[in-house]
Structure formats: C-alpha cells, structure tokens
Specification:
Elements lengths: L6 E13 L2 E7 L11 E6 L8 E4 L2 E2 L5 E6 L3 H7 L6 E8 L10 E6 L4 H10 L5 E7 L8 H5 L9 E5 L6 E2 L2 H11 L4 E5 L2 H14 L3 E4 L15 E4 L2 E4 L6 E3 H4 L3
Parallel strand pairs: 8-9, 8-12, 9-10, 10-11, 12-13
Antiparallel strand pairs: 1-2, 1-7, 2-6, 3-4, 3-7, 5-6, 13-16, 14-15
Helix pairs in contact: 4-5
Length: 259
C-alpha cells in the first residue's frame, strides 16, 4: 500500500517501450505525496540482487497519484528496469530535490534526449498559467518519439514545440542549440530551463549568459542516497560545495557553469 512516507512500494502498471532503448514506466500509487515539476525519485526493483537505486526524474504524476518515469537503457541497471513486467514491485524514494522555480513567462524549455522527461510535468501542471516554448533535440527521431505524449496534453501544444535531430530524420537537422539561437533572436523569454547532456547544457548556458538571459539547469549526477547524507553527488560552485540531490538538481546555470 502506498502512503505519504518518503519510501514506498509500488506496483508496476505499465512499462511501455516508446522507441528503441526508451521506456515509460507507470507505478500505481493513490496516496503519495504530491511531487513538483523537476523533482526526482530513487528507484529500485523490490527483487534484485545487484541493482542500486537510480535517480530518475519524475515524468508525470497523475491525478490519482500514479507516477510515470521516462528512462533510457544505457547500462545494466536501466536494462533490468526495461525487463520488468506489470504486477512486479518497485521501491520508490521521493519526491526528492528542488523543483523548477516559478519565473516570469514566457519560458523557453530546452531538452536533449531523455532530458525531456522533467518538462512533461512542468507543462501539464502549469499550462493554464505558463506561456512556453519547448525545444527538443536528439540524435535521431527515436529520441523524440516521447513528444507524442507531450502533444496529447492539449490540442494546441504542438504549436509550441520545435524539434531538431542530429541526422535530420525529424525536425531541423542540427543541434537544439541552433534552435535556441533562432528563437532567442525573434522572441523575448523570461528565462530558459534546460535538461540534457552536460555539453549541451553548458552550450545553452553560455548562449544565455552572452544574451543576459537567466538560465536554470537540471543536473544529473550519480547518487547513492538521494537525501544528502553521503555527499557523493557534491559539485563545486562559487559559493562552496553543493549536493545535487539536496540543493539541486536544479541550479541557476551561473552556479555550476562558470568561468
């Protein structure tokens, strides 16, 4: 049974393959603490002899409390997750970390690959009060199949999404940073939120810094506990060491990418 404590056992309702190596897992929970956009959970199968908990961003929390997580199989741990079936149990610790701050609209959201994950809940939960555009980038079209879930939120969402792929298989051929430069040249944005590979986030942060636009980044670091006790995910900032799991995962870009 789910409850409001930080650690709970959840039944897998669905573990759907979105595209090659990309999955969307739904966990049943009717009485869980409400999560905020940008927060994450430490996930691990109930029955596993070698799986350490993995930090995975919340994709969505449904009105009945059910949780969804979008992930990419890049190692043995996430590969094990992809093999799990409905009815099996997961242990979830969360919600953890901070959330996307409410800043002046319109917002420009920049996601790379699986880094698109935290933006679904942000859009779904704040679409009535938040004006936004989403720039989505991936190596190939498979990394952007998840956008079908975004476009199903509302009929007009499609008009606010711009796509880019390295190979040109969908959207603009090129990097999502090129889309960013294009959109910043034609429209005012109150702030930029970005999540994805570190080189991409650094590039986005620099583009924003050069133009005087506030930029917030959602970091991904290896974590052992997720609650700040082990300090294994600590990063250096101009004001001292900070824990990604506790003070983050969302930081002002000037705190983590600085010269």
């Amino acid at each position: 049974m789910c409850h409001s404590e930080k650690i709970a056992e959840h039944e897998i309702l669905e573990n759907r393959k979105i595209a090659e190596d990309y999955y969307l897992m739904t966990l049943k929970c009717a009485y869980l603490q409400k999560a905020q956009p940008g927060q994450f959970y430490m996930l691990s199968p109930k029955k596993s002899n070698h799986f350490l908990s993995r930090p995975i961003s919340l994709f969505s929390q449904k009105s009945n409390g059910d949780l969804q997580f979008y992930y990419f199989t890049k190692g043995s741990g996430t590969l094990e997750l992809s093999h799990m079936k409905p009815g099996e149990k997961m242990i979830a610790q969360g919600p953890l970390g901070n959330s996307f701050t409410k800043v002046k609209s319109p917002l420009l959201l920049v996601g790379g690959g699986v880094g698109l994950a935290p933006f679904y809940e942000l859009i779904e939960s704040r679409r009535e009060t938040m004006s936004f555009e989403l720039l989505a980038g991936a190596r190939t079209s498979t990394g952007l199949e998840i956008l079908k879930e975004f476009k199903a939120i509302s009929p007009d969402i499609d008009q606010s999404i711009y796509e880019a792929s390295d190979d040109g298989s969908v959207g603009m051929k090129g990097f999502v940073t090129e889309l960013l430069i294009q959109r910043l040249a034609v429209k005012y944005f109150g702030a930029v939120f970005v999540c994805g590979p570190t080189p991409m986030m650094k590039a986005v942060a620099k583009i924003c810094r050069d133009r005087g636009i506030q930029c917030f980044v959602s970091l991904e670091e290896a974590m052992a506990c997720g609650v700040g006790a082990c300090v294994g995910c600590s990063i250096e900032t101009p004001t001292g060491m900070k824990r990604v799991c506790k003070e983050g995962p969302i930081f002002d870009a000037t705190e983590v990418f600085y010269e």
